[in-house]
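Narrative summary of target 7.
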Amino acid sequence: MSQGSRIDYLMMTEPMKLTIDAMKSHWALINFDLWGDSMVIFKGPMEIDPKDMIDLKELKRGTMFPDGDLLHFVIEHFGDDIEKGVLRQNILVNIAEEKLSHRLNDRKVLRWGDDLYDEDRRITLTAVAQTPVSIKIHFGICIDSDSNAGFVGIDEYHLDVDELAEVIGNQYRADMKRLTEKCWRMRPIM
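Modeled conformation, tokenized:
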């Protein structure tokens, strides 16, 4: 991370639509005055044209975006390459899996690749994009179910969406801080 372990953070109280603009560099700075590495969390629908889909495998597969609201995490890390972005995405997915599993005692949350499922119903969708100056991560957790697209929403589990957003966001920020601090304190072998 370019500025040590700091991630500027905003949890929106008002719903908003996720558009492809959120995956462009400096989106959080331009729209919310968040400088440097950032995380914006909000609820709302997706409004992305399928031709703008980032994950080419999902595009070729014909994956549909879910209708209804999602809990969105839009993260930007400056100076990272796509591989490091995918590794950060994996950390975020692991955190979400742990937090959801903890809250769904009687259900098994399964991780297949970089998505979470309840049996064969998908709970999440995610993508990583390289910009000229940063990597962007989008991680969406369905709030509303959309059986036509194969998604189950966490509304079926009666979870507190704001609490879930907060614990996932805080854990991700803490893990990124620990990652940076771990790099600082390791001495080289000569």
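The longest strand covers residues 70-78.
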